[in-house]
Amino acid sequence: VRDALIALAAHEEAERKQTGLAKVRDDLGDPVMGNSDGKITLYEFSDYNCGYCKRVFEPIQKLLRDNPDVRLVIKEFPILSQSSLVAAKAAIAAEMQSKFGAYHIAMMTYRGKITDDVVMRLAVQAGVDEKQLKLDMESPKTAAIIQRTREAAAALEINGTPGLVIGSKVV
Q1: Separation CA 78–CA 70 (nearest Å)
Q2: Each residue's pLDDT tens digit, 155-170
Q3: DSSP letter string over 59-99?
Q4: Residues 44, 163: contact at Cβ < 8 Å?
């Protein structure tokens, strides 16, 4: 009976992980950096208020510069504060205007408290149309992308940032 329960738990864990990986790979609408057609995909669960995310930003950017076949998908995972949610919505909305890269760099290199005003100011500096940004931030599509990321994180037991998924390995 004990062995059967252990085997069942292992089977359920494997299924949960496969479900989570499928949700992670469902990345339509998620912001992308690097080679959008790259053969190697790295998924990063990130929060703009996360100091550790800001620390890994430059090494990940270096990885993209040194490896032209890498595709980085940012999974906006706002878990630290209300301003994290505002910043994540703005990131997805910036992606809709093809301005995510400049916005993301500005947010990750910004030092100071992230506020709604900071989010908007940096988005506009990145070339984002502010009126359209505000509309897209509140769209059902943006909400669905964030919800899908939360579901993937839960399935993979990612409860902090940064969280990385490379192939089937979760770091």
Answers
A1: 24
A2: 889 999 999 999 888 8
A3: HHHHHHHH-TTEEEEEEE---S-HHHHHHHHHHHHHHHTT-
A4: yes
pTM here is 0.87
Strands 32-34 and 40-46: unpaired
| Residue 78 in tokens | 């706002």
Rounded CA-CA distance 28/25 in Å is 9
Q: Is 154 exposed, middle or buried (0-12, 13-18, 19+ CB in 10 A)?
A: middle
Tens digit of each residue's pLDDT (9 = 90 or more) over 123-157? 999 999 999 999 999 999 999 999 999 999 998 89
* Cβ atoms within 10 Å of 64's Cβ, excluding its own: 17
Distances in whole angstroms, Cα of residue 164 to Cα of each of 112, 126, 132, 154:
25, 26, 30, 14
Neighbours of 119 (CB within 10 A): 25
Phi, psi for residue 131 in degrees, rounded to 5: -60, -45
Please give the pLDDT value at position 48: 97
Cα–Cα distance between 96 and 76 in angstroms, integer?
A: 14
Q: Helix, strand or coil for residue 32?
A: strand
